[in-house]
Write a structure and sequence with these properties.
Elements: H1 6-10, H2 21-24, H3 28-31, E1 55-56, E2 59-60, H4 64-71, H5 75-84, H6 91-100
Antiparallel strand pairs: 1-2
């Protein structure tokens, strides 16, 4: 079974050509091509907690350092953490990958 990306799990409609992408814009996690396939996802779809500007609870989230404590409470984060276990990549490494590719 394919692993879900955040926009599929959350049903936000902010993926490319999603039902809300024209109104709210395409999510920065969908545009983060540098980390494509991390944790088996598309773009940053399975590491959205490391991406600045994602929306959670209807509010734009800031930088990783400011949002990660909220992300750790998210059901999607918990799912990825459970599925990946010891193979989970640290947010710092993900941020590094996004800034170097």
């Amino acid at each position: 079974m394919a692993k879900q990306n955040c926009w599929e799990f959350m049903g936000c409609g902010r993926e490319f050509n999603g039902e809300k992408s024209h109104e709210l814009g395409v999510c920065p996690a969908y545009r983060a091509y540098q980390v494509n396939k991390v944790h088996g996802g598309k773009q940053a779809g399975r590491c959205c907690w490391a991406v600045t500007g994602t929306i959670c609870g209807g509010k734009v989230q800031g930088m990783y350092a400011l949002k990660f404590s909220n992300c750790q409470k998210c059901d999607f984060y918990k799912l990825v953490y459970k599925e990946e276990g010891e193979k989970i990549i640290s947010p710092h490494k993900i941020i590094h990958l996004m800034n170097t590719k």
